[in-house]
Design brief:
Length: about 280
Amino acid sequence: MARRIGTAKGVASLALALFLGACGSSEVKDQPLDQLDAESIFRLGEQSLATEKKAENAVYYFAEVERLYPYSEMSKRALIMQAYGYHKDKDYENSRAAAQRYIDTYPAEEDAAYAKYLLALSYYDQIDEVGRDQGLTFQALQALRAVIEEYPDTDYARSAILKFDLAFDHLASKEMEIGRYYLRRNHFTAALNRFRVVVEQYQTTTHTAEALYRLIECYLSLGLTEEAQTAGAILGHNYQSTVWYEDGYRLLTKQGLQPEAQGDSWLAMIYRRVVKGEWL
C-alpha cells in the first residue's frame, strides 16, 4: 500500500467486486470466525468496507484477524485496515492508536508510510473551523511534517505538503480573527501584536497582505506614523496589485504620508531583508 494515497479506498472498491463475484461468501459468513483462515476473515472485512456505510463491522473482522492470527502476514495488513476503518468512521482517536501501533510494530514495512499519513490525517481532518482549539492544528502540522521528512519521495508526502500549507494558513487565520476582534474594540496594541505574528511567522500564507494593512490601521491610530509608512512600503512591494495596498495607500495619503520605510522598527528590519536583501 505504500506510495498510494488511496490504497485503503482502492481496496474497498476492489472488495465490492470480490463480494459480488465470490462463491459461497454467505456460507463463509455463517461459519464461526475461529474456524476460518486469516485470508477468509480479512476478505469479510473488505466486503464489509465495500458494502456497508459504517466501518464498524469491517474493523471487527480485521481485529479478529489480528487476534486469531497474530504473527501472520494477514495480521499485519489487518492492522493498517483497522486504522483506515476507524478513520472512515471519524473515530480519530482509535484510528490514531491503530496507526501508531502499526508504526511501532512494523516500522520498516512499506505501509508504515501510510500509517504515518493516517495518523496525521487523524489530526488534520478535525481542523474544520477557525474558532476551534488550535492545539489540533499544531499536532497536525507536526504529524504532517513527519510524513514529509521521513517519506519525501512518496505520494503521501506530496499530499502532506498540500495539507501542511492549509493547516499553516489556518493558524494565520486564527491570529487574524483575534486581531480583528481587538481592532474593532479599539484595542490597537493587542491587535497589532496579532497582526505582527502573521507578518513574522506566517508570511507565506494568504493573510499577510491584510495583516500589513491592519498594521497600518493600528499604527496610524496610535500615532506611530513611521511604522505605518513602513508597513505600507512592504505592502506596496509585495502586494501592490491587491485591494489591501490600495486601501492602505489611501489611509496613508489622507494623512499626508507615503508608503516608505522609516525608522528602525521591526518592520524596518523586515523591509531591509525583503526589499533590500540586507540580512546583516
